[in-house]
From TrEMBL:
The keyword Metal-binding applies. GO terms for biological process: small molecule metabolic process. Keywords: Hydrolase, Magnesium, Metal-binding. SUPFAM superfamilies: HAD-like. Signal peptide: none annotated. It comes from Paenibacillus uliginis N3/975. Its cofactor is Mg(2+). GO terms for molecular function: metal ion binding; phosphatase activity. This is Haloacid dehalogenase-like hydrolase. InterPro entries: HAD-like_hydrolase (IPR051400), HAD-like_sf (IPR036412), HAD-SF_hydro_IA (IPR006439), HAD_2 (IPR041492), HAD_sf (IPR023214), PGP-like_dom2 (IPR023198).
Amino acid sequence: MKNIRYIFFDCMETIIDLFELPTSSDYAFWSYANSGVEQYWQSFDDYLERYNIAKKLMNDSYDTYQEYELKQRIEVVVNATESIKQDKKEVTNRLYDNYWNTYKSKCFIKEEVRDAVLQLKEKYRLAIVSNFMVMNGIEELLNKNNMRNSFEFIVSSIGFGWRKPDPRIYKYAIDNSGCEAQEILFIGDDYENDYVAPRKSGMNSLWLNKFHEKRDDIDQVHDFYEITQKLLG
């Protein structure tokens, strides 16, 4: 690809992987299990029901693609739980910290990704543009894996306030880069957020099709080895 100066990467399932892909209920379970405050709910099913209600309430109270912090969702659960008479802030913090510590324990960066990023950094400027609901969470994960310095800046949905595929987050990242949109290549595993939407914003894009889904006539790769082959030869 000619005239590319910057590469924007998605983060989760692109740069950082999880040992197992979470289901929709896992996020609730990671906050609840072994939190030390499980006694306030009859069972995990009771907690999960309240968690899903809180999720819907939060989603309905925000504009489409407007981001909020996951901790706010947990706070809604706690405030709506009648058995918690006091120390609501402490219970919220226990659940949230339990979620985040569990999440971090499941994250890792593949060696092929690490090697590819270091190679690409020699030719291109790199940045992260990603949806994430934990403030400074991406930075913490990259620091934990000694990869933060590989990326010149990070735009997260929780930091910016809008999540992909809202056009505002792409424009903000483009403006931060100091480049023209056509000088940027976006790479990520989500077809809509990381391939289609960046192109609508004027960028080039490359879909990381990790699971070999069938889509024709698009620019795609299946792993980071193919990315380096395509961009470095």
